[in-house]
């Protein structure tokens, strides 16, 4: 792969990973309708590392709290009041409850999710669903919402289920988790924070699974470096932009794009 192509894929990854338009859906569309070649495994892992680094930079304080809360929870897993004011422990427990359904559903329906990557029609329908969810968040724009000490663990589980279902290509992970959080009454800022705190263990697990399957480092290496850097920088900008959009109650503005792309996918399968 040449450097320009690597940078282009890095930019695409950085944008679609965080904006609620489904990175996996764009990958399927590119492969089946535009004839893109699937990136090799090492490059794919590096792109995910790039976007992961963007999340770490933006949410470095929350991630530090998460680690601190996790260490405290390991020392006293059953201790403490679930409604106390220990923010680090509270964050860890909410992310833990949100991650469990993601892991269970992801492994239980792994074959089903993988089969959908071969269907542009499935991506088209999924993008229409994503667009509808985004559009419905208009109803939450005036809600004051709940913070981390107000929500229940069952709410975290429901957002985790949404994240698991977003493994489906065309269903945006950020779009679905933030939308469900808003529907459940989360504060807008907290909905965005929680969505991307859930992203941390999910992407760490995905990267680990891909590394296990990795066999060697491809040559040339520099295009991979530039592609990873492009994913990290673009991802940082896209993430900052998305959080501002959510904070101002404008999350629904991405809906028309998802609808338009979904219609294009369905039309393409109809006329092929």
TrEMBL record:
<keyword id="KW-0046">Antibiotic resistance</keyword>
<dbReference type="InterPro" id="IPR003824">
    <property type="entry name" value="UppP"/>
</dbReference>
<keyword id="KW-0573">Peptidoglycan synthesis</keyword>
<keyword id="KW-0378">Hydrolase</keyword>
<keyword id="KW-0812">Transmembrane</keyword>
<feature type="transmembrane region" description="Helical">
    <location>
        <begin position="115"/>
        <end position="136"/>
    </location>
</feature>
<dbReference type="GO" id="GO:0009252">
    <property type="term" value="P:peptidoglycan biosynthetic process"/>
</dbReference>
<dbReference type="GO" id="GO:0071555">
    <property type="term" value="P:cell wall organization"/>
</dbReference>
<protein>
    <recommendedName>
        <fullName>Undecaprenyl-diphosphatase</fullName>
        <ecNumber>3.6.1.27</ecNumber>
    </recommendedName>
</protein>
<feature type="transmembrane region" description="Helical">
    <location>
        <begin position="41"/>
        <end position="59"/>
    </location>
</feature>
<feature type="transmembrane region" description="Helical">
    <location>
        <begin position="224"/>
        <end position="245"/>
    </location>
</feature>
<keyword id="KW-0133">Cell shape</keyword>
<keyword id="KW-0472">Membrane</keyword>
<comment type="similarity">
    <text>Belongs to the UppP family.</text>
</comment>
<dbReference type="Pfam" id="PF02673">
    <property type="entry name" value="BacA"/>
</dbReference>
<dbReference type="GO" id="GO:0046677">
    <property type="term" value="P:response to antibiotic"/>
</dbReference>
<keyword id="KW-0961">Cell wall biogenesis/degradation</keyword>
<dbReference type="GO" id="GO:0005886">
    <property type="term" value="C:plasma membrane"/>
</dbReference>
<keyword id="KW-1133">Transmembrane helix</keyword>
<feature type="transmembrane region" description="Helical">
    <location>
        <begin position="190"/>
        <end position="212"/>
    </location>
</feature>
<dbReference type="GO" id="GO:0008360">
    <property type="term" value="P:regulation of cell shape"/>
</dbReference>
<dbReference type="GO" id="GO:0050380">
    <property type="term" value="F:undecaprenyl-diphosphatase activity"/>
</dbReference>
<feature type="transmembrane region" description="Helical">
    <location>
        <begin position="251"/>
        <end position="271"/>
    </location>
</feature>
<comment type="function">
    <text>Catalyzes the dephosphorylation of undecaprenyl diphosphate (UPP). Confers resistance to bacitracin.</text>
</comment>
<feature type="transmembrane region" description="Helical">
    <location>
        <begin position="91"/>
        <end position="109"/>
    </location>
</feature>
<keyword id="KW-1003">Cell membrane</keyword>
């Amino acid at each position: 792969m040449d450097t320009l192509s690597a940078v282009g894929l890095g930019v695409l990854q950085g944008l679609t990973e965080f904006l609620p338009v489904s990175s996996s859906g764009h990958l399927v569309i590119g492969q089946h309708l535009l004839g893109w070649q699937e990136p090799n495994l090492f490059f794919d892992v590096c792109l995910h590392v790039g976007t992961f680094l963007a999340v770490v930079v933006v949410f470095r304080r929350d991630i530090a709290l998460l680690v601190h809360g996790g260490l405290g929870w390991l020392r006293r897993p059953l201790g403490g009041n679930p409604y106390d004011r220990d923010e680090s422990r509270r964050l860890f427990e909410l992310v833990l409850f949100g991650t469990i359904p993601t892991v269970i559903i992801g492994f239980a329906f792994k074959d089903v999710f993988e089969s959908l990557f071969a269907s542009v029609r499935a991506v088209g329908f999924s993008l229409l669903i994503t667009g509808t969810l985004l559009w419905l968040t208009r109803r939450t724009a005036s809600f004051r919402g709940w913070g981390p000490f107000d929500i229940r663990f069952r709410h975290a589980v429901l957002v985790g289920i949404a994240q698991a279902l977003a493994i489906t290509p065309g269903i945006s992970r950020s779009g679905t988790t933030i939308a469900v959080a808003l529907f459940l009454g989360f504060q807008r800022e907290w909905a965005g924070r929680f969505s991307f705190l859930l992203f941390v263990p999910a992407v760490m697990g995905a990267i680990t699974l891909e590394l296990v399957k990795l066999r060697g480092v491809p040559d040339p290496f520099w295009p991979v470096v530039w592609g990873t850097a492009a994913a990290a920088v673009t991802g940082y900008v896209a993430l900052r932009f998305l959080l501002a959009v959510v904070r101002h109650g404008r999350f629904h503005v991405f809906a028309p794009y998802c609808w338009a792309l979904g219609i294009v996918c369905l039309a393409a399968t109809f006329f092929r």
